[in-house]
Amino acid sequence: MKLSAKEEMLMQHIWKLEKAGMKEIINEYDTPKPATTTIATLLKRMKDKEVIDYKVNGNSREYFALIEKSVYFKSHFRGLMKNFFGNSAASLASFFTSSSDLSTEELKSLRKMIDSEIQKKEK
Which pLDDT tens digit goes with each residue over 96-113? Predict the structure, then answer.
């Protein structure tokens, strides 16, 4: 499932709030706030994509995510790796470590995480 940039931004707010009505969602946006009709349109499209749903509470709707943030991120991360790094984790790691200004401490921390994962998988 692919969300537009505006849908992704809205999804970030829904993940943060967990359950929220239209007013709470709009309040999460910086000024100038988007129009209610804009958010309503995005919510409808996202419901059609089956990434959110809602429960009716009186005259209002309470929106919530149907997909976890980590699941969504994982699917897009795989696409990024495939499209930009030839599905090679080594190429991604090489780009990440050489193109970002990571400190020696940050690189050592990454190495510890990788070593820990290697140990888990070797068991």
Answer: 788 778 888 988 898 899
- Of the two residues 43 and 100, the one the predictor is more confident about is 43
Whole-structure pTM value? 0.72
- Contact call for residues 101 and 86 (beta carbons, < 8 A): no
What distance in Å separates the CA atoms of residue 22 and residue 33, rounded to the nearest whole number? 12
Question: Cα–Cα distance between 79 and 77 in angstroms, integer?
Answer: 5
| Residues 6+ positions from 7 with CB-CB distance below 8 Å | 42, 45, 46, 49
Interacting residues of 64 by C-beta distance below 8 A, sequence separation 6+: 14, 18, 19, 20, 52, 53, 54, 55
> The dihedral of CA 74, 106, 119, 84: what is its sign?
positive
